Amino acid sequence: MVRYFLLLLVVVLVSVGVCLQSSCGGEQEAASTEGAAGCGCNRLRRAASSAADSKEERPSSEPAAKYTAAANEKISQMMFIPGGEFLMGTDDPGIPQDGEAPQRPMYVDSFYMDVLEVTNQQFQSFIKATGYVTEAEKFGDSFVFEGILSESVKSQITQAVAAAPWWLPVKGANWNHPEGQDSNITDRLDHPVVHVSWADAVAFCSWANKRLPTEAEWEYACRGGLRDRLYPWGNKLNPKGRHYANLWQGDFPVHNSGEDGYVKTSPVMSFPANLFGLHDMVGNVWEWTSDWWTVHHTTDHQQNPTGPPSGKDKVKKGGSYMCHKSYCYRYRCAARSQNTPDSSASNLGFRCVSQEKQ
Ligand SMILES: [Ca+2]
Ligand SMILES: [Ca+2]
């Protein structure tokens, strides 16, 4: 019973994450509106879209091909992030209830950050070296977006999540079997690992002699030295018609057109780096940070803030391939969301940082 209670809790929290991203209604009209009041998620229950079930395809104009060839060389690289002052958060929050505001002055010391989200290949190396067992493996299931599940797996699931029917608890889903037992990572070793809990992410980073970034470090890195910009690259979502992140195009959750080339995760480095040389800071998969969640922030100048001393949820940043402005306007540097530390899902990963060069 405890397990199922936790499962339900996670369902709710995960769905809150998505629904908030989803704004559960509010952002459908305008991204800057109140957001989460009046969740319209229930009426979104539909069968998975044919587009989401289809094979990933790269558009002819997107940069995946030329970046993928170099990915292996950069796979473990870290970028030096020069410390400095920056403005964290925003006074013009897209989703006010997330605690994006107020904009507040911060200073962070220099650090090194993974250029890329941690990949399946890297996580596989960690598992092989340590024998580590992830929380999803211990629990025996994890949450998978319905749109990427096989019909076979879906037919075996009887449990639905009323508030967010696109999230299904899938038996046997874990980092090595992202859509359940009939799936594997063989053909996506250069994709970000998913179905990792916060503790799993911490364990990996520790093994690599690294750690998770604080939320302030993550946001500082996301901004790449730009001031008052929505995205790591500026204020326009698609400058010159180009996609800079793996997000959702179409009507969430029923139709993903895959205009950016991907309806699921994409190989890391498929999209351009920001000015700090970091890829996929927004989009592709959400990224865990070390901070506990709060929506209350001081406007006093802070130096290397680490968040509240305790809490219930951990902060995640950057949004994912499931984010669309109408339901998940969280692919901005100031945006944020939360999950319980034991949560895992098919759109949640991480990257590590360290004070020293690794
Ligand atoms: Ca996409
Ligand atoms: Ca990301």
Automatic annotation (TrEMBL):
Subcellular location: Endoplasmic reticulum lumen
Pfam families, A to Z: FGE-sulfatase
Residue ranges of every copy of the Sulfatase-modifying factor enzyme-like domain listed in the record: 76-353
Chief location: endoplasmic reticulum
UniProt-listed InterPro entries: CTDL_fold, Sulfatase_Mod_Factor_Kinase, SUMF_dom, SUMF_sf
Coiled coil: none
GO cellular component, one term: endoplasmic reticulum lumen
Signal peptide residues on this chain, from the entry's feature table: 1-21
GO molecular function: formylglycine-generating oxidase activity
Protein keywords: Signal
Family: Belongs to the sulfatase-modifying factor family.
Name of this chain's protein: Sulfatase modifying factor 1
